[in-house]
Amino acid sequence: MNNKILYNVSIEQLLQNKLGSGLGRDIIISPNLPDYIDLFTFPLRVDAIVFLVCLKGTARISINLKEWELSKDMYLISLPENTIGLKHISNDFEGYTFILSMDYIRSISLNLKEILPYYGYVRIHPCFQVAHASVKLILQYFNLLSVLLNEDDSIRKKDIVKGLINSLVNKLADDLDEFGVRSITVKTKSKEYYFMNFTELLLVHFREEHGVGFYAKKLGLTPKYLSAIMKDVSGMTAAEWINNYMVLEAQTLLSFTDMNIMQIADHLNFPNQSFFSKYFKQHVGQTPKQYRNSNNV
Predict the structure, then answer these.
(1) SS3 label, residue 44
(2) Mean pLDDT across the stretch 87-105?
């Protein structure tokens, strides 16, 4: 490996590279996925939701070290915590890239109870086939958004864009309902609130804070109750969520950076390399060195 570094990138940075049309630091839309190939060839994290729709051709994309193939009439949705990279794009590829910040998602007042099941689904199934009629309708949304984002600012421009995106997000949810996502229900609003806040805290702190107690204290809960909430909402305990984030981060750093094992242990706030190696082998079945050697890309 040659001086590999795992990068985080924001919508603002993408717009600075003139990759598509945008609105501040919250939205970017582009009909030219090949424009991103140089930036995304090496896996990175985008601090936003990334939505791709394929109209023609194919694209091979990695999300959290797993490869997915996007072909005609398929969607791909990547969440902010994901590591995403473009492995290959066919010469005849046509499609749209739509990137939306989480801050913007919150600002358009989408119902938290409605969003949660879809978040859980796309975390496990980021790539899926939809009806051609749905793709044609989504394309109309994208074309209209592109026109609006390139227009001069007006008093109501942000409100118009907000209304259109709210409608677009609901259309995507409607398409996901075809996979039975609506049947994934959550019992109470409070559990949804704690679930979303736990995952947001985890995204920020998982490298330094490995104990459930830290997150429970931040949320004003007992560790036992937080774990019960997470299990009820997502099927995994809080500790399992923490472990999943840490193991994926370790695997990503071993695969895509030149950091040595001691540096990775320090990055993830383990007391020493030996403790990290034992933890990693317990969860992955290989030592960090064995994993790196078998996944050297």
Answers:
(1) strand
(2) 86
Which range is most confident: 176-180, 189-193, 293-297? 176-180
Q: What is residue 40's three-state secondary structure?
A: helix
Evaluate the CA torsion angle 146, 147, 148, 150 in order and state its sign: positive
User: Which letter, b or e, does each residue of 61-88 get, where b requires 16 or more Cβ atoms within 10 Å of its Cβ?
Assistant: bbbbbeebebbbbbbbbbbbbbbbbbee
Cβ(64)–Cβ(26) below 8 Å = no
Angle between helix 212-219 and helix 238-256 axes, rounded to 10 deg? 120
Residue 267: CB partners within 8 Å, gap ≥ 6? 207, 253, 259
pTM for the full model? 0.75
Report how far residue 77's alpha carbon sits from residue 119's, in angstroms, rounded to the nearest whole number: 10
Q: Residue 143 is encoded by which pair of tokens?
A: 């074309």
Tally of CA atoms within 13 A in the half-sphere of 207 that contains its CB: 12
- Residue 233 CB burial class (10 angstroms; 0-12, 13-18, ≥19): buried
Phi, psi of 7 (to 5 degrees): -105, 150
Tell me which residue of 195, 188, 189, 186 sits closest to 230, measured CA to CA: 195
Phi/psi region, residue 73 (left: phi>0; alpha: psi -120 to 50; beta: rest), is left
The 10s digit of each residue's pLDDT in 40-65 is 666 677 778 889 999 999 999 988 88
Q: What is residue 20's predicted lDDT score, i.e. its pLDDT? A: 60
Strand partners, 127: 76
**Residue 206, amino acid:** F
Alpha-carbon span 262 to 61, nearest angstrom: 30
Structure tokens at 32: 């030219």
The type of residue at 208 is E
Domains and CATH numbers, the chain: 7-183 (2.60.120.280), 189-294 (1.10.10.60)
- Of the candidates 102, 99, 89, the one whose C-alpha atom is nearest the C-alpha of residue 30 is 99
